[in-house]
Write a structure and sequence with these properties.
6 strands; globular; binds inosine-5'-diphosphate; alpha+beta; binds magnesium ion
Length: about 160
C-alpha cells in the first residue's frame, strides 16, 4: 500500500466538547504519523473552497456556519488542522473517524461514540477526514503550505538540523 497524506480537522463541536486529545490519541494508536498541525481561523472563503463539491446540497449553508464555529460560539482560529501520513492513511483515518452520519457510524468509531445529529438535521461529527486520494491532495494543499509539513521541512534542510 502507498504512503499517503490526509487532512484531519477537529471540527468546532469536537473542539468545544474537549475531544481534541481523544482524536489525536486514536490516530496515534492507529499508527499514523502526525506531520502538520496548526490552529486556523476558517474564513468563509476557505470553508466554501474546502466544501466546494457540496455547494448544491441543501445542508451547505449550515455546513459553512458549522465549520466556522457559528453553532459553538467559537472565536477565530479554533479549528485544529492536522496532516497525517502513513500506509493507507486516507482509508485508515476514515475508519477511525467512522461514517459521515453519526447515527450510522460504528459505535467504536469517533463519530459513532461522540457525534450527533442536531434537531435541525445537521451532522455534528467531531472531525473531518479526507475522503479519497484526490480530495486529500487538494485539501492538504488548501490548508497547509509545503514548508509547514515535517517531511518537507526535513527535506529542505537536508538533514543538517
Ligand atoms: P465526510 O465528512 O464523511 O467526508 P461529506 O459527504 O463529505 O462527509 O460531507 C461533509 C460534511 O457535511 C459531513 O461531515 C457533515 O458534517 C455534513 N453533512 C454531510 N451530509 C449531511 C447531511 O445529509 N445532513 C447534514 N449534514 C451533512
Ligand atoms: Mg467528504
Amino acid at each position: 500500500m502507498a504512503i499517503e497524506q490526509t487532512l484531519v480537522l477537529i471540527k468546532p463541536d469536537g473542539f468545544k466538547r474537549g475531544l481534541t486529545g481523544l482524536v489525536i490519541d486514536r490516530l496515534d494508536q492507529a499508527g499514523l504519523e502526525l506531520i502538520g498541525a496548526k490552529m486556523v481561523g476558517v474564513t468563509e472563503k476557505l470553508a466554501k473552497e474546502h466544501y466546494k463539491d457540496l455547494a448544491d446540497k441543501p445542508f451547505f449553508p449550515n455546513l459553512i456556519r458549522y465549520i466556522r464555529g457559528e453553532f459553538h460560539d467559537l472565536k477565530a482560529n479554533q479549528v485544529l488542522a492536522l496532516v497525517y501520513q502513513g500506509e493507507g492513511a486516507i482509508a485508515l483515518t476514515r475508519k477511525v473517524a467512522g461514517a459521515t452520519n453519526p447515527e450510522q457510524a460504528d459505535p467504536h468509531s469517533i463519530r459513532g461514540s461522540f457525534g450527533r445529529v442536531t434537531t435541525q438535521g445537521q451532522f455534528e461529527n467531531v472531525l473531518h477526514a479526507s475522503g479519497n486520494a484526490a480530495d486529500a491532495e487538494r485539501e492538504v494543499k488548501l490548508w497547509f503550505k509545503p514548508e509547514e509539513l515535517v517531511s518537507a521541512a526535513r527535506a529542505a534542510t537536508n538533514g543538517k538540523h
